[in-house]
Design a protein that fits this description.
Number of strands: 6
Strand content: 25-35%
Oligomer: single chain
Order of helices and strands: HEEEEHEE
Number of helices: 2
Strand order of the largest sheet: 1-5-2-3-4-6
Shape: globular
Structural class: alpha/beta
Distance between the termini: 32 Å
Helix content: 10-25%
Length: 118
C-alpha cells in the first residue's frame, strides 16, 4: 500500500481496515463474512453480530464527540430476529450505498473491531 492510499486524516481506507479486522475474527475463531462491499476508501461499516439462537445485534460505525471510532446500536440495541436485522440493513444500504456490511457469528456477541458502544 502506498502513502497515497491513506486518507487525508491518516486513517486506513475502509477496505484495508475491514480486511485486517476480518483476519482478527478468523484468528479468534469467529466466523465472519463481508456481506456487502461498500466504497473501498471511505465507506462506513455496519456489523451484524449473529448470536445464532439468541438473535442478532446490529451496530453502526460512527464517531463520538471527540472524533474517536464508536458504535451506535441499531434497533434499540436489542437482540432481534435475523429477518429484522436484515431488513434494517437493507434500508440502511438503500440510504447509503457506500456502506459495508460484515456479519460475525459469535454466541457471546463479541467482535474484534475497536471502539466503544455508545
Amino acid at each position: 500500500m502506498s502513502p497515497s492510499d491513506w486518507q487525508a486524516d491518516g486513517r486506513l481506507p475502509s477496505e484495508v481496515w475491514i480486511k485486517a479486522h476480518l483476519r482478527r475474527c478468523f484468528a479468534e475463531g469467529m466466523p465472519a463474512t463481508v456481506v456487502r462491499r461498500g466504497e473501498k476508501n471511505s465507506g462506513t461499516l455496519i456489523l451484524k453480530i449473529n448470536q445464532l439462537e439468541a438473535g442478532c445485534r446490529v451496530l453502526n460505525q460512527t464517531r463520538d464527540l471527540d472524533g474517536v471510532l464508536a458504535w451506535m446500536p441499531a434497533l434499540g440495541g436489542e437482540l432481534v430476529e435475523e429477518s429484522d436485522a436484515d431488513a434494517y440493513i437493507e434500508r440502511a444500504v438503500a440510504r447509503d450505498p457506500d456502506v459495508w456490511v460484515v456479519e460475525i457469528e459469535d454466541r457471546e456477541g463479541r467482535h474484534p473491531f475497536e471502539g466503544k458502544v455508545l
